[in-house]
């Protein structure tokens, strides 16, 4: 019961369950799932020291995708993006850690794979911007909105990470 209350509080105010750590939303897009890159992407986040608090394989509805990408609705590629993201399964995840939004963006790499540095997910696995393998929240506010869109509060787990004392002061 206590963990459930903490999980609800953590979804509204991420520090509630973790002290000072924030949460971010990451999704392996259909091309990443089809190319069998899910394990590699999870491995990179785990090696960085982030804590996985939610994960699921979903076939996203058009309504969910339109809401997720609402900020891009005036862009010429919006329709193609929504269609593409609905073309196959997506692995939706929530990661938690110190400055996780900014650090995740660095792990993922630039949106355009041509600009992504080697060693980043997109720098290592992507060629074209329309097939860039993974989505990551671009701000704490976006992360909160995206997490709430993709996950029910009860799906966000509050658990003690035994490695935390080796990662944080």
Report the sheet with the most strands, covering strand number, pairing sense and barrel closure: 4 strands, antiparallel
Shape call: globular
Output the helix-strand order. Answer: HHEHHEHHEHHEHH
- Regions with pLDDT < 50 over 5+ consecutive residues? 1-16
Instruction: Give the spatial strand order of the biggest sheet.
Output: 2-3-1-4
Question: Span from first to last CA?
Answer: 29 Å
Work out the radius of gyration: 16 Å
The overall average pLDDT, rounded, is: 90
Structural class: alpha+beta
What's the number of extended β-strand segments?
A: 4
Proportion in β-strands: 15-25%
> What's the helical proportion of residues?
40-55%
**SS field, number of helical segments:** 10
Domain Nucleoside diphosphate kinase-like: 21-158
Family: Belongs to the NDK family.
Binding site for ATP: 29, 77, 105, 111, 122, 132
Organism: Echinops telfairi (Lesser hedgehog tenrec)
Structural commentary:
It comes from Echinops telfairi (Lesser hedgehog tenrec). Its EC number is 2.7.4.6. Keywords: ATP-binding, Kinase, Nucleotide-binding, Signal, Transferase. Residues 1-19 form the signal peptide. It is an enzyme of class 2 (transferase). A 4-stranded antiparallel β-sheet has the order 2-3-1-4. It has 169 residues and is an alpha+beta fold. The chain has 10 helices and 4 strands; from the N terminus they run ααβααβααβααβαα. 44% of the residues lie in helices and 15% in strands. It is globular and about 45 Å long. Residues 1-16 have low confidence and may be disordered.
Brief descriptors of the model:
169 residues, four-stranded antiparallel β-sheet, 10 helices, globular
């Amino acid at each position: 019961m206590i963990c459930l209350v903490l999980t609800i509080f953590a979804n509204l105010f991420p520090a509630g369950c973790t002290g000072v750590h924030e949460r971010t939303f990451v999704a392996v897009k259909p091309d990443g799932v089809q190319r069998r890159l899910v394990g590699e992407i999870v491995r990179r986040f785990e090696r960085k020291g982030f804590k996985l608090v939610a994960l699921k394989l979903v076939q996203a509805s058009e309504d969910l995708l339109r809401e997720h990408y609402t900020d891009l609705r005036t862009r010429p590629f919006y329709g193609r993006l929504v269609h593409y993201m609905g073309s196959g399964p997506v692995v939706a995840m929530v990661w938690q850690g110190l400055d996780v939004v900014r650090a995740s963006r660095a792990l993922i790499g630039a949106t355009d794979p041509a600009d992504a540095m080697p060693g980043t997910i997109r720098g290592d696995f992507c060629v074209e911007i329309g097939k860039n393998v993974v989505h990551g929240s671009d701000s704490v506010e976006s992360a909160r909105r995206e997490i709430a869109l993709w996950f029910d509060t009860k799906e966000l787990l509050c658990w003690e990470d035994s490695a935390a004392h080796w990662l944080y002061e």
